[in-house]
């Protein structure tokens, strides 16, 4: 019984350590510093239709590459909606720009 208790304790500690060290990834691609993309959604949405197209994204971030846009576009519909933009910002700890 004592062995079982010790074993369960060790398993619990290992599981806790693994859980604390896990850093979930928002996307699978290597992207430039996300701080460069800290902007209000409304400022990117120049057409004011609730969606950001690649053209709008590139106009606001002229040095951006298509893979950055694609990584943020989670549902792969060719647009970034407000929820996708917030998820991207939250995943990278980006706060509202000042």
What does this structure look like?
By secondary structure, the chain is mostly helical. The chain has a domain of 64 residues: EF-hand (Recoverin, domain 1), CATH 1.10.238. It has 5 helices and 2 strands. It has a two-stranded antiparallel sheet.
The residue-averaged pLDDT reads 78
Cα-to-Cα separation, first versus last residue: 59 Å
Output the radius of gyration. 20 Å
Helical proportion, percent range: 40-55%
- Broad CATH class of the domain at 28-91: Mainly Alpha
Uncertain runs: 14-24
Characterize the largest beta sheet: strand count, sense, and whether it forms a barrel. 2 strands, antiparallel
Q: From the coordinates shown, what is the CATH architecture of the domain at 28-91?
A: Orthogonal Bundle
Q: Structural class given helices, strands, pairing?
A: mainly alpha
CATH topology of the domain at 28-91: Recoverin, domain 1
Q: Going across the major beta sheet, what is the strand order? A: 1-2
Counting DSSP E segments of at least 2 residues, the number of strands comes to 2
Query: Percent of residues in beta strands?
Result: under 5%
Oligomer type: single chain
Shape: elongated
The number of helical elements comes to 5
By CATH's scheme, which homologous superfamily of the domain at 28-91 applies? EF-hand
The topology string of helices and strands comes to: HHEHHEH
């Amino acid at each position: 019984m004592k062995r079982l208790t010790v074993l369960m304790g060790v398993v619990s500690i290992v599981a806790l350590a693994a859980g604390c060290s896990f850093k979930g990834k928002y996307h699978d691609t290597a992207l430039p510093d996300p701080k460069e993309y800290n902007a209000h959604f409304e400022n990117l949405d120049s057409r004011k239709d609730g969606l950001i197209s690649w053209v709008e994204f590139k106009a606001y971030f002229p040095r951006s590459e298509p893979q950055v846009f694609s990584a943020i576009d989670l549902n792969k519909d060719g647009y970034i909606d407000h929820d996708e933009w917030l998820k991207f910002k939250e995943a990278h700890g980006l706060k509202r720009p000042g």
